[in-house]
Design a protein that fits this description.
- The structure holds three protein chains of three kinds.
- Chain A contains five helices and five strands; from the N terminus they run ββαβββαααα.
- Chain A has a five-stranded mixed beta sheet, with helices on both faces.
- In chain A, strand 1 and strand 2 form a beta hairpin.
- The longest helix of chain A has 16 residues.
- In chain A, 67% of the residues are buried.
- By secondary structure, chain B is α+β, with helices and mostly antiparallel strands.
- Helix content of chain B is 30%, strand content 22%.
- Chain B has a seven-stranded mixed beta sheet, with helices on both faces. In chain B, strands 12-22-19-18-13 form a five-stranded mixed beta sheet, sandwiched between helices. A four-stranded mixed beta sheet of chain B has the order 23-24-25-28.
- In chain B, a hairpin with a 5-residue loop joins strand 5 and strand 6.
- The longest helix of chain B has 27 residues.
- Chain B is globular.
- By secondary structure, chain C is mainly α.
- Helix content of chain C is 37%, strand content 4%.
- In chain C, helix 2 runs antiparallel to helix 7 and helix 5 packs antiparallel against helix 7.
- The longest helix of chain C is centred in the N-terminal third of the chain and has 21 residues.
- In chain C, 38% of the residues are buried.
- Classes of the chains: A alpha+beta, B alpha+beta, C mainly alpha.
- The interface between A and B is large, with 59 and 66 residues.
Chain lengths: 158, 727, 203
């Protein structure tokens, strides 16, 4: 067991846990932030995506001992971000979700995409969203919602 | 039953009114469940008490109980729309809740509480409309009484009753008076023109909490003192534990218990820990010796050999029309012999399977995203030695399912209950990891089809003989009695034996070998393979006859296949702008198929990129009767076709070698990612006032045949073995 | 004939190597012959084409994984700087060090080698020894490295050294290291550089 000081959604949080524990389970079970989802545990589906130090990160494979003092942003906190807020709103307006289980990860990946690529092409979307599985396969609307969010951000919607 | 529920409804209202805090027209469903079971579990009646379904709160919020699991299909929005429309409720104040297990929430047609067969809206359409209309009648009656007038002098709008002389009262104000009114037996429903919500594009009620992480799925459940359990399942289905060495596992900090448990088939080892990670770490440190004696080690390669042989012999007759010898009289040059292979498929919903159970000795509480709430409730009760009424079963929002949460043996719930029984008083959340899911069975069964078609001078079939080989999904389950007729499981032959094509001398038969691999319905069930066979062969016949694929299908369809004919017309019209002007290297492919009473026609624009099919566009035409929520229907079809592409993925198969599943996770069994889905899908709905039919499953069957029909044009090859390992 | 022309080139390089080596001492007192250099190169080549190394020297837009060198899961792509794309970066999973509890390898600035340093063809087949050698010794392709630069790269670059400390797989077993030890690899590189980096003839 070891104690870690984490920076989650701008708040300092302290957890004591086994160093091998993935960040995902620290968020879900120690910090009770269950918006970040467990899908595969092998970084193949992206349901667990959070931002660590500004990088979209698959929290199911990152042991807590590897996180350090980097800022962690989860789906619960992404709405405080200008791009995050627009993406979430676009997801709702586009009626993207079905079961919704993967959508936290999809949104976190989409925010990372739009922060670097304000006007993504279809290929940009394919590549940046290419590793997130939606088993309901809401992909056409995910694509549409990203484009809608980009248009909104382009108009200064943030 | 109705009387008792009404009595309890009154009691609740009276008590609340006396307390002056909370006036509701509501029956606690848990009380309903208990009440009914205490009275001996009478069969469900066809009269549904509104107060088990609607709670009008003093703050004006209208809480509607949804008698189904919501796992993406949108029923949590669609059923409240039906009820709220008839109720004239203010939609912005409607809250939908998933109802717990109770007889009152059973499917009106099937008699069990369930989601399946794409029947949620189709079966509860009338029920929810009537509930809303009855509730409205009671509110109007209360208002009329209050104003000393007659109900016909009142009208309703947005949760308000308006009476003569400009008088009005909100539903919230009238709720407790309305609760004292008797439930009308008959009500007049709105005419199509009067509907305000139904038929409109209404956004989902659950979007916000699914986009900000606040919605709690079953796996997110947290209770005081909750423990997490994982189970080491046998490497071969049905094997039993011979010996366990668990010292290392027990040394993992946070591990509470390690013990052998009985499974639906064979035995396993449960690890219970404070949290998931130590439980999983401990499981990987277990050393288990398994007893594999007497357990059949299924092997995909061997099964294909066996299935192919079986397909060369006639099976049990599913349909036999016309002359069985007609085919033999067709010259070999006018015959096609086609053999098809379909592998096992895992459902792999994004939320891994899980169930939480707390056993308190004389009561138990269960939290599960279940497609079979009442069945799973009974199973838990049986494991714990309780009556179903002693088991409160909460329906948790589920992250997908596609049939996987509808098991006749309730094996996940039994597993959870078995573990919880040992930890009396402690809530235990059983978590299946993705590996448990991919390797855990309950797959879409492997199927082999052998089809021989005789072709007439006009290019149309003159005889058709089809032998289908695959495990029966319903064998040895309570469903067998309803589904298996003359030794044929109709879930294996649906879509072929009952084809809407007018094929003379049609003979379809089936073999259902017993194989030691648990199988289950996988979204659209038999249509997953029968539609592929039918629609690739019909396309091949059209190509061979040099007849336009629309014209060929239209000519071959029976005149009574009205839904398919209407969708073909609509598809031809809606693809006119693109299908004949495709860029170089692209091809058009199409299919049409009716399932769950919904007709679907599908067209795709496909090229080959990176040695895989790239679907630039899919256009769909749908006839699903009245479109209750066109927005959600469009969404179901856009995404449902992409789900259907699971079948074409290069790694879209579960295979077994020497009894062991060869895939472990999403690295070996790879569902479609965004690049595998159509870039855009446009959905066109045939206008209809017929009763609504299924929308969850019908998207799935059409896409794979449409895509390979396009690929065939690009490569000249025919694709009959799935998954599509290479093009 | 191509073969004989290549042969002449090798001789020319060898002669040049001999004359150049005479004036320097950084490669040790022993003069390394071309034959020895070529033998050393084949050792180097056996390491470069080992999955731990070649998996990130692809000719495609994706990295590979595993001893069977399969395409990286989850559609991971190269991206403009070889570090993936926003939303799906190498660093989305690969941290500064190996994560043994989850089986994900890690090292400082995890990334794909540039396409100029591809050691495979677009069908994921390893390039020939001669082709890899040509690419490696072409300063226009190798980020301007000369002999000492390549030696230093092999000796000190964290991602090169990672190959000998590749960590655990998700199932807890150890990843296979390259066929030489790191010391042997560095020694072979030193001999090869001392021999003026001869490359085998052929395509």
């Amino acid at each position: 067991m070891a104690t870690y000081e984490l920076n989650v959604n701008g708040k300092r949080r302290e957890v004591t846990t086994d160093p091998s524990t993935p960040l995902l389970w620290v968020l879900r079970e120690d910090l009770k932030m269950t918006g970040t989802k467990f899908g595969c545990g092998i970084s193949a589906c992206g349901a667990c995506t959070v931002h660590v130090g500004g990088i979209a990160t698959r929290s199911c494979v990152v042991p807590i001992s590897h996180v350090g003092d980097r800022q962690i942003v989860t789906i619960e906190g992404i709405g405080q971000d200008d791009v995050g807020r627009v993406v979430q709103a676009s997801w709702v307006d586009t009626d993207v979700v079905q079961c919704g289980y993967c959508q936290s990860g999809q949104i976190m990946a989409a925010v990372a995409l739009l922060k670097h690529t304000p006007k993504p092409s279809d290929q940009d979307i394919d590549e940046s969203m290419g590793g997130n599985i939606c088993r309901c396969a809401t992909y056409p609307r995910i694509r549409e919602a990203i484009k809608n969010a980009a248009a909104q951000l382009g108009k200064g919607g943030a | 039953m109705l009387a008792s529920i009404n009595r309890r409804g009154f009691m609740r209202v009276s008590f609340a009114a006396a307390g002056g805090l909370f006036v509701s027209l509501y029956l606690d469903p848990r009380a309903a469940s208990t009440a009914q079971a205490q009275e001996g579990g009478q069969p469900p009646e066809k009269v549904y008490p509104p107060d088990a379904f609607v709670n009008i709160r003093p703050d004006g919020k209208i809480v509607i109980q949804v008698n189904r699991l919501e796992f993406g299909q949108g029923v949590q929005t669609a059923l409240p729309m039906l009820l709220a429309d008839e109720l004239d409720a203010d939609w912005s104040n409607v809250i939908a809740e998933l109802a717990p297990a109770a007889d009152v929430y059973k499917d009106p047609l099937f008699g069990i509480q369930m989601v399946g067969g794409s029947g949620s809206v189709a079966h509860s359409y009338q029920q929810y409309r009537e509930l809303g209309a009855k509730m409205r009648a009671m509110l109007v009656a209360a208002a009329a009484e209050r104003w000393n007038t007659t109900p016909d002098q009142c009208r309703t709008e947005a949760s308000v009753v308006h009476g003569p002389g400009g008088r009005s009262a909100t539903y919230a104000e009238l709720a407790s008076e309305a609760a004292r009114k008797s439930v009308p037996v008959k009500v007049v429903l709105k005419s199509p023109a009067e509907l305000r919500l139904v038929g409109k594009k209404v956004k989902r009620l659950d979007s916000h909490p699914k986009c900000d992480g606040s919605l709690k799925f079953g796996l997110d459940l947290d209770l005081p003192g909750i423990k997490v359990a994982v189970v080491a399942h046998p490497p071969v289905f049905g094997a039993r534990v011979k010996s366990i060495v668990d010292d290392e596992a027990r040394r993992v900090e946070g591990v509470r218990d390690v013990f052998e448990i009985q499974l639906a088939k064979g035995t396993g080892v449960a690890v219970v820990a404070d949290k998931f990670w130590p439980a999983k770490q401990a499981r990987s440190r277990l050393k288990i010796e398994w007893d594999l004696a007497g357990v059949e080690a299924a092997d995909s390669a061997e099964l294909w050999t066996r299935y192919k042989q079986l397909a060369g012999t006639p099976g049990k007759v599913a349909v036999s029309n016309g002359d069985p010898k007609a085919l033999d009289q067709v010259a070999a040059s006018n015959r096609i012999v086609a053999e098809y292979e379909f592998p096992f498929l895992a459902h792999s919903p994004m939320e891994p399977l899980n169930t939480t159970v707390r056993f308190d000795g004389d009561r138990a509480e269960v939290w599960a995203g279940s497609q079979f709430q009442t069945g799973d409730q009974m199973a838990v009760a049986e494991v714990l030695g309780l009556k179903p009424a002693q088991v409160t079963f909460h329906t948790e929002m589920a992250g997908g399912g596609f049939g996987r949460r509808a098991t006749a043996d309730s094996h996940v719930q039994r597993e959870a209950a078995t573990i919880a029984k040992r930890l009396r008083g402690t809530p235990v959340k059983l978590v299946w990891t993705r590996e448990d899911d991919v390797q855990g069975g309950y797959y879409r069964p492997m199927h082999f089809h052998r089809v021989e078609v005789g072709i007439g001078a006009d290019g149309f079939p003159t005889a058709w003989r089809q032998v289908i080989v695959g495990q029966s999904i319903t064998a040895d389950t309570p469903f067998e009695a309803f589904v298996v007729k003359n030794g044929v499981d109709s879930t294996a032959t649906e879509g072929a034996a009952d084809t809407h094509y007018n094929i003379p001398n049609l003979h379809v038969s089936a073999h259902h070998p017993k194989v030691n691999v648990p199988v289950l319905w996988w979204r659209s069930v038999g249509h997953t393979h029968t539609a592929f066979v039918m629609e690739t062969l019909i396309d091949e016949l059209a190509t061979r006859a040099k007849i336009d694929p629309f014209a060929y299908r239209r000519k071959l369809l029976k005149p009574e296949a009205k839904k398919l004919l209407s969708t073909l017309d609509l598809l031809e019209k809606t693809t006119a702008g693109w299908r004949n002007s495709l860029p170089q290297g692209h091809a058009f492919g199409m299919s049409c198929h009716e399932s769950f009473d919904t007709g679907v026609a599908c067209a795709v624009d496909v090229s080959i990129e990176n040695k895989r099919p790239r679907i630039h566009r899919a256009t769909l035409a749908v006839d699903c009767g009245l479109a209750v929520n066109p927005l959600s229907i469009e969404s179901q079809f856009q995404a449902g076709v992409s789900f259907g592409l699971t079948q074409l993925m290069a790694k879209g198969a579960i295979t077994l070698k020497n009894g062991r599943v060869e895939q472990r996770n999403f690295d070996g069994y790879v569902p479609p990612y965004i690049v595998d889905a159509p870039i855009a899908v446009d959905v066109h709905i045939v206008p209809s006032t017929q009763p609504p039919t299924g929308c969850g499953e019908p998207p799935v069957p059409v896409i794979s045949p449409a895509v390979v029909n396009a690929l065939s044009k690009l490569t000249g090859k025919r694709y009959r073995s799935l998954p599509l390992v290479s093009i | 004939m191509p073969g004989s022309r290549a042969g002449v080139l090798v001789i020319a390089v060898a002669v040049f190597g001999v004359s150049a080596a005479a004036g320097t001492k950084i490669f040790g007192p022993q003069r390394t012959t071309t034959a020895q250099g070529l033998a050393a190169w084949e050792q180097i080549y056996s390491v470069l084409t080992h999955p731990r190394c070649i998996n990130c020297h692809t000719a495609t837009n994706y990295p590979q994984q595993g001893d069977d060198r399969h395409r990286h899961v989850a559609n991971v792509v190269r991206g403009p700087g070889g570090k993936g794309v926003p939303g799906l970066n190498c660093a989305s999973c690969h941290q500064e060090t190996n994560a043994d509890s989850t089986g994900v390898p890690g090292g400082h600035a995890w990334h794909l080698a540039p396409l100029s340093m591809k050691w495979q063809d677009t069908n994921d087949q390893p390039l020939s020894s001669a082709a890899v050698c040509r690419a490696l010794t072409n300063s226009a392709k190798n980020n301007g490295l000369n002999g000492p630069g390549i030696l230093k790269h092999h000796e000190e670059e964290p991602l090169v050294k990672w190959a000998w400390d590749p960590g655990q797989r998700p199932d807890g077993t150890m990843r296979t290291p390259p066929p030489l030890t790191h010391e042997q690899f560095v020694a072979a590189t030193r001999r090869w550089v001392a021999a003026r980096m001869p490359c085998p003839s052929g395509k």
